[in-house]
Design brief:
Elements: H1 2-31, E1 33-34, E2 38-41, E3 44-45, E4 58-60, E5 63-67, H2 68-74, E6 78-82, E7 87-92, E8 95-100, E9 105-108, E10 111-114, E11 120-122, E12 125-129, H3 130-135, E13 140-144, E14 149-153, E15 179-181, E16 186-188, E17 191-202, E18 208-217, E19 223-230, E20 235-243, E21 250-259, E22 264-272, E23 278-285
Amino acid sequence: MKKSKAFALRFFIYSFLICSLFLSTTLFSNASISTNVKVYIDGKLMEFGREANDPGPYIKEGRTLIPFRRIFEALDMEVLWDAQERMVTATGNGIEMKLYIGKTNAYVNGEEKTLDVPAEITDGRTFVPLRFVSENCGAKVDWEDSTKSVYITLPKEIESPGKEMPGGPGDINVPVVERNKLGDKVTYNGMTFSFDSIELVDIPGIFDKRLYIKGKTNAEGSELLIRIFDKTHSSVKTVAYAQNSESSTYDLIATTYVSKSFVPAYMFVYTYDANGKLVQIADIRF
């Protein structure tokens, strides 16, 4: 009887210590993380939670982390995710930035820089330090502690997303362009091209998918800017590059990353005219 009581007492004490350790660890971990952060780009509030896998930013160890694709697109940067290297690469406006998951070293145009808080993966999404990314892209960042708000002022050479490409939803100056289907040939200033297939590929371990677009062109070394929309008119941008092939034409290849809920519906194709102005030359429906 005495042995049973002693065992029960020891078991109770052991369980109490384990629960206390778990609670203290959890509370300590959560104490350094705050959510409900507001982010403004040139005075406009960024909206999060628009889809199932669209998490908002949070504060960790005094630094705001934000989904990498949302902030880089706002800064007019093209982004690539290297699952093997666990590395984010962003390029645009004369800047190339590389950040590694879990590492405090980053590279901006080849120069090594140190992060206060590294990029990390939370619930399958990649988050990057907002201030480091924005300031190294030339933007100004201000913090308002009372409202937990971040105010990002874009440099003059970076306009708000979508302004640099005519013909997007809401643009009153949409050029008259004939609608085409996948596989249709389009000709502009002696260049003939077609986009023949579009494919979404799952990426293990994260919520993003990789989007591939393939086609053909007769113009060696050509580059076409493309903007792909889903049914809600959300969009992603990328560039299609002409590559050598075994035939008399050249392969057109474009790739980018999208969320798993993104279902391509149509895309606009752009190039520069003789005066260096960006013009829409195709409207392709899937």
